[in-house]
Amino acid sequence: MSSIQILLSVFFLIIFSSCLPTTQYKIPKLGAFQKNIHRTEPQTSSKSSSKDLVMFYYTQTLDHFNYKPESYTTFRQRYVIDFRYWGGANTSAPIFVFFGAEEDLDDDLDAIGFLSDNAPHFKALLIYIEHRYYGKSIPFGSRKEALKNAETLGYLNSAQAMADYAAVIMHLKKKYSAKNSPVIVIGGSYGGMLTSWFRLKYPHIALGALASSAPILYFDDIAPQEGYYSIVTKDFKETSESCYNTIRKSWGEIEKIASKPNGLSILSKKFKTCFPLNRTFELEDFLDSIYFEAAQYDYPPEFPVSIVCGGINKASAARTDILDRILAVVVAYMGNRSCYDMNEFNYPDAIYEWRWQTCSEIVMPIGHESNSMFPPAPFNLNDYIKDCKSLFGVLPQPHWITTYYGGHDIKLILQRFGSNIIFSNGLRDPYSSGGVLNNISYSIVAVSTVNGSHCLDIQRASPSDPHWLVMQRKIEVKIIEGWISKYYTDLLEVKDQTPF
């Protein structure tokens, strides 16, 4: 990272930190996978060799929905193609398109394996498209200019992003004479929401969609506001009752210590914070982030929730007090460090862009319930609006997602209107509380696993994968096979008919 990038990151972190919500906790970032930026253990990677991937840039239109002169401004949108397995346009071999979401496309190429793992079977062309405003797909010439104010950020939304994907796909189908190659769009988390909405909005472009861990129902009042944290609580309670009880009691203990003279100094020393605590929120938010990240990305074989609870239970056996047990959580999850930065979970480069998206249209009302292992903190829309107005000078549109894409009465509407969407979920994923968990029709189907976690099914396959995960992926492949087979049958029938 260059010195300019570092300065920009620090600048936006300062802005973001100074405008943190006045309510107790932030909305968890979606993210298709855990980036492992917090853990100290060495990580293994089976990413594709760079020689197999060819990078391109598409001259993308800034505004697809307006015709003012400034709407025709363009920017360079990055996409990557893997040609290794494609059977070619002459055979109408399929095209798998991965929708990048709120991160750098390079991160997706390292982690997402569903496309490359299954491409040989389908003889598919693989395309990975980066989301506007993330990675290297930055309008206005630089990240600094793109994030300057609400006017420049106003072009960052889901509808513009999907129109980008449509333009790139159509361009490539024409470029490679692949008019009859069926397109399957694949995405996880926010990217999974985009793929499901894309199939509904652009059925003439995408034959089908795999939407992994896509909480499309976590808007308005469709899913319970406490759903996310109730599953985090369930994951910990099922893993260890004593671990759950320790965490539940720890919040009161933190507040008790903080109320003493020099209480924040005591907590700062106890938890080895890199900078003195100014308020208990900083520590509580840091711990909250550890718990929800461990639950959301509770991947085998490490199972982070077990790592967290292992730290607590080991400290409990040594008869330590509650806060020593919680410190053991930090050490077990983050590694043994000289100090711990309470802002560590707020450092990812894309946090400012994602905060804009959640302050404009992606308003997910997530709160803590009173009987979870967290202190009560219900979602307060008025406070949320106030925070977003302070940060960006705009008012969130909490009902826009369901107005534009739907969501209410989803089975009644989509069973006759939609088709060819797989909603896959792992039920240990807190965001599954806002996911589609039941079949909507014969071709809009839910594929769930009891032990699965966030977007696990689209991660790279490994010999150590449990049987239930292997079977989940096989079911998804079988469904996609059916879509493509039916498409080829329909294609032959159309070719045999007299043209209009």
TrEMBL record:
Pfam families: Peptidase_S28. It comes from the Eukaryota. InterPro entries: AB_hydrolase_fold, Peptidase_S28, Ser_carbopepase_S28_SKS. GO terms for biological process: proteolysis. Keywords: Glycoprotein, Hydrolase, Protease, Signal. GO terms for molecular function: dipeptidyl-peptidase activity; serine-type exopeptidase activity. Belongs to the peptidase S28 family. This is Lysosomal Pro-X carboxypeptidase.
